[in-house]
């Protein structure tokens, strides 16, 4: 062995010396051919044995001579040295064969290292071209397959693994980071072969080739290992290329695992053999791409029972700590757990955990709506997979968890959250006791509610056609051909001809329809003409048409400002406040609200005092109190508008004067004559300084300023009072939040009025008292009120009289931005802080000037 080692070493040194000093192309090519005889693919065609002797061949491989020799070739590579070979010698590719037909893992690492360590030159370009040919020629598949081979002896296998652990780490790092390294080195001159999407797509195809070799090897009862492949896939997914990789791999996995246990075992070993730190990224990609949970069962088997990391991801993290828009993710997770008797206990366990989190009052308050909606979807998917035995066995426990969580949802100020609780309660009651009495809530049905109800039916197997079209559509795009425009024209002609035939057959078209556009629906009830008659019509309980007619004309009668409006305004508002929609009148809430707003606008003092007083009365429900707040806010906004811009809230406007008249108007003709003359004068006049082209707006008094105190202070003074029917500092925090919104609107509507400073100070004190409220809705209302204070008070007062208060508010806002669990609160705090900063900055810049 010593003689063989010395002989190979001497031959290698002599060859390197010749290649360095010789300029004879023939001598150079003979030297390269002499060393190329040691390469694994240089065999005798007749005996399929290496051209070199067996001991020398093994020594060249195992003694490290190959690595040193190709490193020497890369170091020698230059335009001058490569130019020593004649064109005939270069066509024989004696230089390239050492990198393309040698030991692939060594040549790959040497080429990658040479590219990253070299500067733009002939050497770098040559290595890039060799590496590109290496990738496109399927050498990466051979490289990975070489790492899958194992030996039979356990002892030697462990020694082999320990010896090659460092090599595996180098290979995986080089393979995964190659696109990034090439891009950093070449910038915008990078070849398309090294772009991430194309590179990892080709790598996925190489992996598929390796998997087929593994399948044939196992089918022939031979040993091989998937450890390197699993770790490589894990590294690729951790680096963010899971989507590109599994877009190629997954369709083949779906097809191959349908009726072959060996392929199921291969897929199982690939996924489960990945490192734990990459398991999350792999499973997340699979859950989003697998179209049916039955595929999950074929690929993973019962791995969730033996792999703790996978169990945590599927029963905890992906359901409780993550949020996905696709319903496919929870359907794949829960369906996989329910698809085997061994895994079914995890479904009930997961459902109980989901209900505990779903019903927790703290979770309802502090989680985002999207997260809570995703949690609801997971619960409904779990319900869809419960069998009859599980429903009977766990009925009492599940109903108890539901009832404890329903109160938290019904107390929520967010309508969408309340609807989630209602849908979940209805679905759970229907699932657990289909024959018994059913829960029924009133909520608005929309696309989201229909999606939630559809989750109670487990998805069906879409079949291979749908799977292939959805997951490998990218491979079909190249095969598609543009449609011939003439075909579209033929189709259009056929459609037109069929339409004409149908038109000819339709004999009813000869009849001219009556013009019914001007028809008006007649009513047997006379529309009220006076406001007292309107009140009487609203209080009538036996005549639907009279009540509807009175409600529709109520706002119009108030805005006509009759003489007795002040006398009957309170009675009018009181009747509307207690009016119920027992006849299901169209636009009932809008008509009722508009009429009360009109009464408050034209009798602001009397009606506002009545509403603020009744707001704290005992004989009203939450809906009526919310109506009072909405009326006060809308009336304040309308009163704050200039008279010329005030528009009735129901859209009822005075009829405009006709454009034409039967009798001529001399004043209109004179005005028309003056306009013509003025236009001619303007066209002939040349001005060097142009002043104001439009008249200055005429100042209009704020109608809301004198009465703003009646809207604000009575509403503020009793907020901390506790009654049997209302406790705003307790369970009725919805009223507290709406009241804060109303107070903010009132303050903003009263800006530039003398009382605004006092109102803003009182509201600022209330904000400071309630700033650490536990409810998200109340904190949002506090932030809104604070922003209204900042916008309403003159900026010079903010930096003088309220400087300390604003500094404290700034610290509070920064605290919310950094610590508040609600995303909405953090966003509102950021906006409010920006408003405060811009107002203060503007005032300081004004003072400096």
Could you explain how this protein is built, in words?
- The protein has 849 residues and is an all-alpha fold.
- Among the domains are: 1-137, no CATH class; 312-460; 531-642; 731-740 and 748-848.
- The chain contains 44 helices and no strands.
- The longest helix has 33 residues, at 154-186.
- The chain is elongated, with a radius of gyration of 41 Å.
- The chain starts with a helix and ends with a helix.
- Mean pLDDT is 82; it is low at 42-51, 151-159, 470-496, 498-509 and 645-670.
Which terms would index this structure?
849 residues, mainly alpha, 44 helices
Distance between the termini: 94 Å
| Strand element count | 0
The percentage helix is 55-70%
Mean pLDDT: 82
Specify the biggest β-sheet.
none
Q: Number of helix segments? A: 44
Mass-distribution shape: elongated
Beta-strand residue percentage: under 5%
Structural class label: mainly alpha
Outline:
The chain has 849 residues and is mainly α.
List the topology elements.
Blueprint lengths: L1 H20 L3 H12 L17 H9 L2 H12 L2 H4 L4 H5 L5 H4 L3 H14 L4 H15 L2 H10 L5 H33 L9 H24 L7 H12 L3 H15 L4 H12 L3 H14 L3 H8 L2 H4 L1 H14 L6 H11 L5 H16 L1 H6 L2 H16 L3 H6 L1 H16 L4 H18 L14 H8 L8 H9 L1 H4 L8 H21 L25 H9 L4 H16 L5 H14 L9 H15 L1 H12 L6 H19 L25 H19 L23 H9 L16 H17 L6 H14 L6 H17 L2 H4 L4 H17 L3 H26 L1
Helix pairs in contact: 1-2, 1-3, 1-4, 4-8, 8-9, 8-11, 10-12, 11-13, 12-14, 13-15, 13-16, 14-16, 14-28, 16-19, 16-20, 17-20, 19-20, 19-21, 20-23, 21-23, 21-25, 23-26, 25-26, 31-32, 31-33, 32-34, 33-34, 34-35, 34-36, 35-36, 35-38, 36-39, 38-39, 39-40, 39-41, 40-41, 41-44, 43-44
């Amino acid at each position: 062995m010593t003689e063989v080692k010395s002989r190979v070493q001497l031959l290698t040194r002599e060859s390197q010396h010749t290649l360095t000093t010789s300029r004879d192309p023939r001598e150079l090519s003979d030297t390269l051919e002499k060393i190329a005889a040691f390469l694994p693919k240089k065999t005798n065609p007749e005996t399929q044995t290496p051209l070199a002797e067996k001991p020398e061949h093994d020594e060249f491989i195992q003694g490290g001579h190959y690595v040193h020799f190709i490193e020497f070739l890369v170091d020698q590579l230059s335009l001058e040295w490569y130019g020593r070979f004649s064109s005939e010698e270069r066509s024989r590719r004696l230089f390239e064969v050492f990198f393309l037909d040698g030991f692939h893992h060594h040549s790959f690492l040497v080429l990658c290292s040479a590219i990253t360590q070299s500067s733009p030159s002939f050497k770098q370009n040559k290595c890039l071209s060799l590496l590109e040919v290496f990738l496109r020629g399927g050498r990466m598949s051979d490289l990975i397959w070489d790492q899958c081979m194992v030996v039979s002896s356990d002892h030697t296998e462990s020694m082999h693994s320990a010896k090659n652990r460092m090599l595996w780490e180098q290979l995986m790092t080089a393979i995964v980071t190659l696109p990034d390294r090439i891009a950093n080195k070449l910038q915008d001159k990078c070849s398309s072969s090294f772009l991430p999407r194309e590179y990892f797509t080709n790598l996925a195809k190489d992996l598929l080739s390796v998997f087929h070799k593994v399948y044939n090897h196992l089918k022939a009862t031979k040993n091989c290992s998937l450890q390197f492949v699993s770790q490589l896939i894990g590294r690729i997914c951790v680096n963010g290329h899971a989507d590109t990789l599994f877009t190629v791999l997954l369709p083949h996995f779906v097809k191959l695992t349908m009726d072959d246990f060996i392929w199921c075992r291969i897929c199982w070993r690939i996924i489960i053999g990945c490192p734990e730190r990459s398991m999350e990224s792999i499973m997340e990609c699979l859950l989003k791409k697998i179209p049916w949970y039955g595929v999950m069962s074929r690929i993973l088997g019962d791995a969730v029972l033996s792999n703790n990391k996978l169990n945590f991801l599927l029963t905890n993290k992906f359901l409780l700590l993550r949020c996905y828009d696709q319903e496919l993710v929870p359907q794949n997770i829960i369906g996989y757990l329910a698809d085997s008797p061994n895994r079914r206990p995890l479904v009930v366990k997961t459902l109980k955990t989901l209900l505990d989190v779903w019903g927790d009052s703290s979770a309802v308050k502090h989680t985002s709506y999207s997260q809570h909606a995703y949690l609801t979807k997971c619960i409904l998917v779990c319900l869809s997979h419960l069998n009859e035995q599980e429903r009977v066995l766990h009925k009492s426990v599940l109903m108890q968890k539901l009832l404890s969580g329903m109160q938290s949802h019904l107390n929520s100020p967010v309508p969408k959250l309340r609807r989630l609780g209602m849908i979940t309660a209805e679905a759970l009651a229907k699932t657990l006791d289909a024959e018994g009495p059913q829960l029924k809530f009133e909520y608005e049905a929309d696309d989201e509610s229909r999606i939630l109800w559809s989750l109670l039916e487990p998805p069906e197997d879409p079949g291979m056609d749908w799977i292939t079209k959805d997951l490998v559509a990218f491979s079909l795009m190249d095969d598609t051909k543009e449609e011939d425009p003439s075909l579209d024209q033929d189709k259009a002609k056929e459609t037109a001809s069929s339409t004409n035939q149908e038109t000819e057959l339709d004999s009813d078209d000869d009849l001219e329809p009556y013009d019914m556009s001007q028809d008006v629906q007649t009513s047997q009830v006379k529309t009220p003409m006076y406001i007292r008659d309107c009140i009487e019509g609203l209080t009538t309980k036996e005549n639907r048409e009279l009540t509807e007619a009175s409600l529709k004309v109520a706002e119009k009668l108030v805005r006509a400002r009759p003489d007795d409006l002040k006398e009957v305004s309170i009675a009018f508002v009181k009747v509307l406040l207690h009016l119920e929609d027992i006849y299901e009148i169209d636009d009932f809430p809008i008509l009722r609200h508009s009429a009360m707003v009109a009464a408050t606008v034209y009798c602001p003092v009397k009606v506002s005092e009545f509403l603020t007083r009744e707001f704290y009365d005992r004989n009203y429900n939450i809906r009526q109190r919310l109506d009072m707040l909405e009326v006060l806010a809308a009336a304040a906004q309308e009163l704050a508008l200039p008279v010329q811009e005030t528009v009735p809230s129901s859209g009822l406007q005075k009829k405009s004067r006709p454009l034409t008249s039967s009798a001529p108007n001399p004043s209109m003709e004179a005005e028309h004559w003056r306009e013509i003359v003025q236009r001619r004068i303007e066209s002939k006049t040349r001005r060097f300084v142009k002043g104001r082209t439009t008249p200055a707006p005429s100042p209009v008094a704020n109608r809301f300023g004198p009465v703003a105190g009646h809207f604000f202070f009575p509403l503020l003074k009793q907020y901390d009072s506790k009654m049997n029917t209302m406790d705003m500092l307790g369970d009725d925090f919805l009223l507290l939040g709406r009241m804060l919104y109303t107070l903010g609107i009132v303050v903003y509507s009263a800006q530039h009025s003398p009382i605004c400073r006092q109102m803003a100070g009182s509201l600022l004190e209330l904000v400071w008292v309630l700033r650490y409220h536990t409810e998200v809705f109340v904190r949002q209302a506090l932030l809104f009120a604070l922003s209204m204070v900042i916008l309403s008070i003159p900026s010079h007062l903010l930096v003088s009289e309220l400087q300390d208060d604003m500094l404290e508010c700034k610290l509070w806002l920064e605290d919310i931005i950094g610590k508040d669990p609600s995303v909405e609160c953090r966003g509102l705090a950021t906006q409010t802080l920006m408003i405060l900063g811009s107002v203060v900055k503007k005032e300081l810049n004004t003072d400096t000037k």
